[in-house]
Each structure stands twice: as structure tokens, then as C-alpha cells.
């Protein structure tokens, strides 16, 4: 044993001493329970989902449960309702992420300067993020969007605008709630970015004759790049999974006008009881999210790279 | 190129009672190299930032080229600043860093590139023009920061401790380069440092600040030979001037077992203050070893050989608690530690200050 390992250690050089095998396990054991717990809670359900996605499994047909190959995937991908849900998800996610990012950036820029009561304002601005999504959705549905008692119609009535928001603009309604909820998150990331800037660099730019807008565009924005990327990525991953707002406000309707992917999967599993197809759709969504997130990040990165 | 003038310029930071800069009045001539020097926290950076327009002037005026710029923004002042941290734009190449101000001033691209290249040649930066600041050494970054200022051909250069992040050797060579460059370009320069050697070697004139108050603004030689008060006397020079209170006697000051004469004017002013002692200062090199019966005695505690010079550290016999005196002697004449020597201060090289106010007493 020793004879075999000697040349190995010699090659590694004097500074990095690899611990012996037994020692390594002693070091790892304390981490093991956590690791096992995470695997049990996340990977086992996912593996079950993958398993069901290849089964012809429908709760209404107790005799079902045979291996179905990729038939579920074929049916899901061929389903026009699924494609409709994909389109809705894209609109919903892109709309909410971009809007909340823009608003968050604007608020962060305002919060970045000192004024009396800044701490209070910051706390108040963060609160929407602390409200439970279901509660927020319910609140918006009943007190903002309601065609008769809603605040939105009341506020817009002087301009002659009145609408049954949830019925006439279902996607927009959901996007607005999500934007309201996610703006604080974006704001915090942008604020962290702004405050990590060297004040001397900003002063140097001012002395170099840059006007405030030029300072923002040429100095601050390139610095914020990484923070924008992070915000886009995290925001997208979270908002793709939106279920509460759709369920509470529009129920995916009218018709399928605001059904997004999570709601589609919910309908498949708990309204149509087609577990197989729902599982297949779930697997597709997970895979697609991963691919899209990675791809989007690349594109965004390269765009910024050219910019600077 | 322009002159610079401070007129009773005062700045308070919010939430502080004492002003960071208190009624600073200074005139810098066109093309002059003025150094602001003083201990940490004395308001050097604040003065410079007021001149740059980065800090508000609470009262008083600031002029550049004779025109009142007290309330104008940095971009209207046509000044270039070198920051202590260099403050290079991290996402821009060296060339972009240097050309940024010209770009902001809407200088056409060919002209911009020509001027950047010219400055890069001057500073040996040509091979680095496409690098990012991250990929540069400290000294190279310093030169880029200088280049960024030079390219603009501004009316005034402002530099806030631009050498403090360099190692000792590089600091000395860069020091002479900056001074030479300034002479060549002839741009009025205000330079901040806490290093009195830098101040003495670089400045046409040096302004010494303490607690936000200007102590003295003079040529380096005058500052050294004719300090306006005890603070300047102690701050300028290395090793520092020997500064000590000695009791007054009938005809002068008692130093150990000897008496140093005072002029009638000095005696009168000390008497007016009701002082029983005088604050005497003499530089380590203003002292000669003298024979028995002359001068005053010093017990030598430590002998420091530096090759060309030799410093003796010691105290008056019987007053060990008074702190050390420092004396420079020729190496071959150096006594051994533990002995006693007799010292005579050269006539005219004794500075007399008021023990109460520290002010210089002449006449
Ligand atoms: N932003 C600030 N808020 C409050 N007080 C400040 C601020 N900046 C500086 N001061 C105070 O103002 C005084 C002058 O500061 P300044 O930065 O001008 O000193 P300095 O001479 O440049 O010192 P150093 O050599 O350490 O850089 C100091 O007492 C400092 O504590
Ligand atoms: Mg400073």
C-alpha cells in the first residue's frame, strides 16, 4: 500500500499533502447527513418524476401503469395547449423580469444617494418581497383589479380608462403583480452593485468632465453588468415557476389565456389526473429552464462584452 | 495653464464642529508647483477636493485663472486630478482610460488617439495601451493615472498622494520624474503629500497645514531655515529639529551649564508674554563639538553611524527625562557612547519660539 502511494505523493510536490483515505472520510462524515437530506428531498422526487414520465399513468384508470416509452413526451409536445403555455410563460417571465429589473434599478439609483429618512424608505420598499405570494395575489385581485371596487379603476377613472383588468388583460394583470413582488429583490441586487462602486472612480469621471448621465452610462453601468446578469438569472429561474399568482388571480383563464407552464402541469396532474403527461411536461420544463438560463446568460454576457 | 487662488476657503464636513479646512488663503502662480504638506487629518485632501469641486466651499472663494469657480462643477473647472488610489476605470483599457476625458470633451477620434499616443510615449506606456488596469503593476497604474491627467492638457494638475502606494525605491525615481515632467509641461500643479521629503524636493513652494489651518507657505529653503512657528520647525527636516523649553536667565536662556544670548527684541516679547522660559530650536547639523569651557554639555546615549554622517543621541546631564537631543557630527570626530561632549550651536542657527503660542520670535 505504502509502496504504491509513494510515487504519487512525490509527484504532487511538497506543499499539497493529500490526507489519507481514512482521514478523508473522517472529515466528510459530519457533512453526510446534510448531503443525504438534500438528495432525499430534491433528487428522489425528481427521479420519481422522470420515472412517471415514461409510464402510462392516469389516476382515472387504475389499470394504467405500464411502460410507455417516450409517448408522454410526444403527446405533451404535440399539445397546442402546452405550446400556448410555453408562449405565456415566456411573455410572463420576460415581462416581469425586465419590468422589475428596470424599476429596481431606478429605485436603487434613488436609494444610493443619502437623504433624510432613507432607512425607512428602503424598508418600506422591501416589504412587497416579504408578503406571501398567495396573499399578495389575493390582495391585488380583490382590491386593485376588481372592476367595481378596485383601486386601479378608481385611479384611472379621471382619465376615462376603465377595464375589467383580470378578464381583459389577464397576462398583464399577472405580470403587474409579479413586478410588484420582485422589484424589491432586483432593487437590493442593484443597490449592492451601486454601493460596491469605488467613489473615487466616480469622482475621477466627474473631474474628467463626464456629466451625470455619461457617468452612469460609461462607468456605473459597466460595473453593474455582473449584478444585472445575476438578477436576470435568479429572477428568471424564480418567475418561470410562478404558480400562486396565476392560480389566485386568473385560474389560467379566461380559457387558457394566462396558463403558464406550472399551471399547465397542475391542470394535467390534478384536473386531468394524467400523471404521466404532467411528469413529462415537468421534466421538459426543468430541462428547458436550464438550457434557456445558460443560453440567456451567454447572450447577455457577450452583449455586454461588446458594449464595454 | 492658470493661477490658483484660495481666499479664506473653509469647509465643514456635516456632523463635525471644527472645520476640516479653516480660512485657507493661498496664491499659486501660473506654472508653479505647490506642495500641500502636513500630518494625517490636517485637511490636505479636503483643500484639494475643494479646488477640484468635489467638496463644497462653505465660505470663502476659490479662483482658477482669476475667475471665480467657487460654485462651478468639476467639469467646468478644466482641471485634472490624480487620486491616491489612482481611480482608473476598471472596465476600460489603458488607452480608453487616458482618452476618456477627451471623449467627454467631444474631441475627434484621430486627435484623441494622437494625444493619447503622445502621452503614452512620454510615460513609457505604449506597449500597455490595450491592457486593462487589472493587468498592470502598481507603478504602471500610477503612470496611467498621470497619463490620464496629462492627455487633457488641463489648466491645473491636482495630485493627492500619488506616490503613497509605491515602494520606497520607485517612489524616489517617480518623484523626480513627476517634478521634471511638470517643469517641462509648465502646468500649474497642486500636490498633496504627508511626506516632508517629497514636499521639500518637489515643490517650488510648500504650504504646511495643521488642523485645517495654514501654518506657513514658503520656498523649501526658507521653510527649513526660517520656520514661522514651532510646528513647522518640528515638522520639516529629518531628523527633526531639537525643540525644547529652556529657562530664561538675566541675559538669555540657560541651556544646561551655559547661557545662550537672546536679542533685546526676543527678550522683550518673552517678557510681554510673562514667560519664564523660551522654546529653543536648533537643527542637528547646526551644532559643533567644542572644547572645555565653551558651549553646554551633553551625555551621549547612542551613536548612529550612517557612513557620511554620524548622529549622536543624548541628553543634558542631570535631565534624562527631557528627552533626546540629536546632533550631527563628522564620523571621524564621533565620541563613544556613554561619554560627555560639549556642544556649541552656531550663531544665527538658533530659532526662538514663544513657549505659549509656538510663534517665531525675531528681532
Ligand atoms: N467624509 C468626511 N466626513 C467627516 N469628516 C471627514 C470626512 N473626510 C475627512 N474628514 C475629516 O476632515 C479632516 C481632514 O481630512 P482630510 O482627508 O482632508 O485629511 P488629510 O490631510 O488628507 O489626511 P491624510 O494625510 O490622512 O490623507 C480630518 O480630521 C477628517 O477626520
Ligand atoms: Mg488625504
From TrEMBL, chain A:
Entry membrane topology: Multi-pass membrane protein
The keyword Nucleotide-binding belongs to this UniProt entry's keyword annotation: no
Keywords: Cell membrane, Membrane, Transmembrane, Transmembrane helix, Transport
Pfam families: BPD_transp_1 (PF00528)
Region spans: Disordered: 1-22
Family according to the record: Belongs to the binding-protein-dependent transport system permease family.
Protein name as it appears in the record: Sugar ABC transporter permease
Source organism of this protein record: Streptomonospora nanhaiensis
From TrEMBL, chain B:
UniProt cross-references to InterPro entries, sorted A to Z: AAA+_ATPase, ABC_transporter-like_ATP-bd, ABC_transporter-like_CS, ABC_transpr_MalK-like, ABC_transpr_MalK/UgpC-like, Mo/tungstate-bd_C_term_dom, NA-bd_OB-fold, P-loop_NTPase
Domain of life (superkingdom): Bacteria
UniProt xrefs under Gene3D superfamilies: 2.40.50.100, Nucleic acid-binding proteins, P-loop containing nucleotide triphosphate hydrolases
Ranges where the ABC transporter domain occurs: 4-236
Any GO MF annotation of the entry: ATP binding
Record's keyword terms, sorted: ATP-binding, Nucleotide-binding, Transport
Keyword DNA repair: no
Pfam families cross-referenced by the UniProt entry: ABC_tran, TOBE_2
Classification via SUPFAM superfamilies: MOP-like (SSF50331), P-loop containing nucleoside triphosphate hydrolases (SSF52540)
SMART domains for this protein: AAA
PANTHER family tied to this protein: MALTODEXTRIN IMPORT ATP-BINDING PROTEIN MSMX, OSMOPROTECTIVE COMPOUNDS UPTAKE ATP-BINDING PROTEIN GGTA
Protein name (record): Sn-glycerol-3-phosphate ABC transporter ATP-binding protein UgpC
Native species: Streptomonospora nanhaiensis
Origin organism lineage: Bacteria, Bacillati, Actinomycetota, Actinomycetes, Streptosporangiales
Amino acid at each position: 500500500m505504502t509502496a504504491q502511494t509513494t510515487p504519487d505523493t512525490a509527484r504532487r510536490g511538497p506543499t499539497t499533502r493529500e490526507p489519507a483515505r481514512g482521514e478523508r472520510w473522517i472529515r466528510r462524515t459530519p457533512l453526510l447527513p446534510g448531503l443525504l437530506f438534500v438528495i432525499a428531498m430534491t433528487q428522489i422526487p425528481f427521479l420519481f418524476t422522470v420515472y412517471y414520465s415514461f409510464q402510462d399513468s392516469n389516476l382515472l384508470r387504475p389499470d394504467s401503469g405500464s411502460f410507455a416509452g417516450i409517448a408522454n413526451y410526444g403527446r405533451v409536445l404535440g399539445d397546442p395547449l402546452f405550446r400556448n403555455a410555453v408562449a405565456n410563460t415566456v411573455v410572463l417571465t420576460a415581462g416581469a423580469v425586465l419590468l422589475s429589473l428596470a424599476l429596481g434599478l431606478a429605485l436603487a439609483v434613488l436609494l444610493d444617494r443619502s437623504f433624510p429618512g432613507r432607512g425607512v424608505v428602503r424598508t418600506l420598499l422591501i416589504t412587497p418581497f416579504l408578503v406571501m405570494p398567495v396573499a399578495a395575489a389575493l390582495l391585488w385581485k380583490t382590491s386593485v383589479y376588481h372592476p367595481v371596487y378596485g383601486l386601479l379603476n378608481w385611479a384611472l377613472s379621471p382619465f376615462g380608462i376603465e377595464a375589467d383588468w383580470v378578464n381583459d388583460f389577464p397576462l398583464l394583470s399577472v405580470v403587474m403583480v409579479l413586478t410588484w413582488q420582485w422589484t424589491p429583490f432586483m432593487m437590493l441586487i442593484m443597490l449592492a452593485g451601486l454601493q460596491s462602486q469605488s467613489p473615487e472612480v466616480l469622482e475621477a469621471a466627474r473631474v474628467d468632465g463626464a456629466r451625470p448621465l455619461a457617468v452612469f452610462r460609461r462607468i456605473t453601468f459597466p460595473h453593474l453588468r455582473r449584478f444585472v446578469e445575476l438578477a436576470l438569472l435568479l429572477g428568471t429561474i424564480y418567475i418561470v415557476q410562478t404558480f400562486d399568482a396565476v392560480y389566485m388571480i386568473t385560474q389560467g383563464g379566461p380559457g387558457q389565456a394566462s396558463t403558464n407552464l406550472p399551471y399547465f402541469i397542475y391542470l394535467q396532474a390534478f384536473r386531468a389526473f394524467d400523471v404521466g403527461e404532467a411528469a413529462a411536461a415537468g421534466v421538459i420544463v426543468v430541462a428547458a429552464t436550464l438550457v434557456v438560463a445558460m443560453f440567456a446568460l451567454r447572450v447577455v454576457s457577450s452583449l455586454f462584452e461588446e458594449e464595454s | 495653464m492658470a493661477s490658483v487662488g484660495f481666499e479664506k476657503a473653509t469647509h465643514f464636513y456635516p456632523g463635525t464642529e471644527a472645520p476640516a479646512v479653516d480660512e485657507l488663503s493661498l496664491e499659486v502662480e501660473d506654472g508653479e508647483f505647490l506642495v500641500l504638506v502636513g500630518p494625517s487629518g490636517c485637511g490636505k485632501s479636503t483643500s484639494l477636493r475643494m479646488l477640484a469641486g468635489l467638496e463644497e466651499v462653505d465660505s470663502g472663494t476659490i479662483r482658477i485663472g482669476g475667475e471665480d469657480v467657487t460654485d462651478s462643477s468639476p467639469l467646468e473647472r478644466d482641471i485634472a486630478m490624480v487620486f491616491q488610489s489612482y481611480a482608473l476605470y476598471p472596465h476600460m483599457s489603458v488607452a480608453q482610460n487616458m482618452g476618456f476625458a477627451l471623449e467627454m470633451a467631444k474631441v475627434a477620434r484621430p486627435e484623441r488617439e494622437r494625444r493619447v499616443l503622445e502621452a503614452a510615449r512620454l510615460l513609457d506606456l505604449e506597449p500597455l495601451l490595450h491592457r486593462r488596469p487589472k493587468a498592470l503593476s502598481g507603478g504602471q497604474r500610477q503612470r496611467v493615472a498621470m497619463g490620464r491627467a496629462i492627455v487633457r492638457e488641463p489648466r491645473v494638475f491636482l495630485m493627492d498622494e500619488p506616490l503613497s502606494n509605491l515602494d520606497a525605491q520607485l517612489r524616489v525615481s517617480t518623484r523626480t520624474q513627476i517634478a521634471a515632467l511638470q517643469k517641462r509641461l509648465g502646468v500649474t500643479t497642486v500636490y498633496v503629500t504627508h511626506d516632508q521629503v517629497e514636499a521639500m524636493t518637489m515643490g517650488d513652494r510648500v504650504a504646511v497645514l495643521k488642523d485645517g489651518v495654514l501654518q506657513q507657505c514658503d520656498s523649501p529653503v526658507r521653510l527649513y531655515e526660517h520656520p514661522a512657528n514651532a510646528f513647522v520647525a518640528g515638522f520639516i527636516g529629518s531628523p527633526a529639529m531639537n525643540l525644547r523649553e529652556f529657562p530664561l536667565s538675566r541675559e538669555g536662556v540657560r541651556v544646561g551649564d551655559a547661557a545662550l544670548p537672546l536679542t533685546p527684541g526676543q527678550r522683550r516679547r518673552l517678557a510681554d508674554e510673562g514667560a519664564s522660559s523660551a522654546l529653543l530650536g536648533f537643527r542637528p547639523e547646526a551644532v559643533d563639538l567644542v572644547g572645555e569651557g565653551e558651549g553646554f554639555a551633553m551625555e551621549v546615549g547612542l551613536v548612529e553611524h550612517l557612513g557620511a554622517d554620524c548622529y549622536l543621541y543624548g541628553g543634558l546631564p542631570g535631565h534624562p527625562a527631557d528627552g533626546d537631543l540629536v546632533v550631527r557630527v563628522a564620523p571621524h570626530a564621533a565620541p563613544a557612547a556613554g561619554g560627555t561632549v560639549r556642544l556649541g550651536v552656531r550663531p544665527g542657527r538658533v530659532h526662538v519660539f514663544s513657549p505659549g503660542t509656538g510663534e517665531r520670535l525675531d528681532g
